[in-house]
Amino acid sequence: VEQVIKAERPGGVLLTFGGQTALNCGVELQRSGVFEKYNVKVLGTPIEAIIDTEDRKIFSERIAGIGEKVAPSLAAYSVQEALDAAEKLGYPVMARAAFSLGGLGSGFADNKEELKLLANQALAHSSQLIIDKSLKGWKEVEYEVVRDAYDNCITVCNMENVDPLGIHTGESIVVAPSQTLTNREYNMLRTTAIKVIRHFGVVGECNIQYALNPNSEEYYIIEVNARLSRSSALAGKATGYPLAYVAAKL
């Protein structure tokens, strides 16, 4: 990519249109000073916001900073750390690799042996592993939010996964708009979505995922994707709202 930048000398780049790979690539180019060297401006969502949403540990801290909750979790950088984290949280746990594509290296573990296997697989793809308290069976709800540089915010669409938490969104059936949320739940999650996106300073399109307790109004923020994701494509088709086009214009 550096060779292309060197040859083409672009004035700016957009990192939010190439999925997870583009984000990881952009973060590396920023860290190695390539953008600065060739005077390339990052358009749309700032690099800091991408790092803040992708690094699960920083993400938890930033979310806690505005009084919202992420699922109780600990970051691990080795198999032993993962096992220690699970001891603290109590089994069953859910393991997720950071900076990963399509939920690679993620799964549930009911005991040490299962977690060891998972952790070994996950750490082969990623440097950071997150151990979460298991929320198996909770509803998984997502919102697509668009924000511009002047802080205008709209939620384009909300979606609900037919399968409960624990089955990756990409392999699940998603219904837009959601079918089983009460008006109160819908507005509660919508308000939170806008609050979070403003806090991170995302410009363009982004997707926020929640775990919602089916028996109460308790919810956790699972993650924020500061990019166009598979869900965005679905939201665009379901609502007729040209998400990618609008995000490119912001």
Automatic annotation (TrEMBL):
The record's keywords, sorted A to Z, are: ATP-binding, Ligase, Nucleotide-binding
Q: What is this protein called?
A: carbamoyl-phosphate synthase (ammonia)
**InterPro entries, alphabetized:** ATP-grasp, CPAse_ATP-bd, CPSase_dom, CPSase_preATP-grasp, PreATP-grasp_dom_sf
Q: Name one GO biological process term.
A: glutamine metabolic process
Per the record, its GO cellular-component terms are: cytosol
Q: What is its EC number?
A: 6.3.4.16
Domain named ATP-grasp is located at 60-250
Q: Respond yes or no to whether keyword ATP-binding is given for this record.
A: yes
Q: Does the keyword Plastid apply?
A: no
Top EC class of this enzyme: ligase
* Top-level taxon in the UniProt lineage: Eukaryota
The record's GO molecular-function terms, alphabetically, read: aspartate carbamoyltransferase activity; ATP binding; carbamoyl-phosphate synthase (ammonia) activity; carbamoyl-phosphate synthase (glutamine-hydrolyzing) activity; dihydroorotase activity; metal ion binding
Q: Name one Pfam family in it.
A: CPSase_L_D2
Instruction: Write out the catalysed reaction.
Output: hydrogencarbonate + NH4(+) + 2 ATP = carbamoyl phosphate + 2 ADP + phosphate + 2 H(+)
